[in-house]
Amino acid sequence: MQFSDGRKKAVLYVTRILAFLCFLGLSNAHSLAGPVWERVRQSGELVVAVDTAWPPFQWQRADGRYDGFDVALVMEISRRLNVGIRFVSPPFSEIVAGGWDGKWDVAPSVTPTRQRAKELAFPVVYAYSLASLAVHRDNRSIRGPEDASGKRIGSVKSTEFEKYLTREPFDILGLPGVVYKIDKPVLFQFDDAASTFAALAKGDGVELDAVVDSLQTIMIEIEKGRPFRIVGSPLMFTPSALAVEKGDEEFAALLERVVEDMRAEGTLSELSDTWFGLDITQP
Question: pTM score > 0.90 for this model?
Answer without folding.
Answer: no
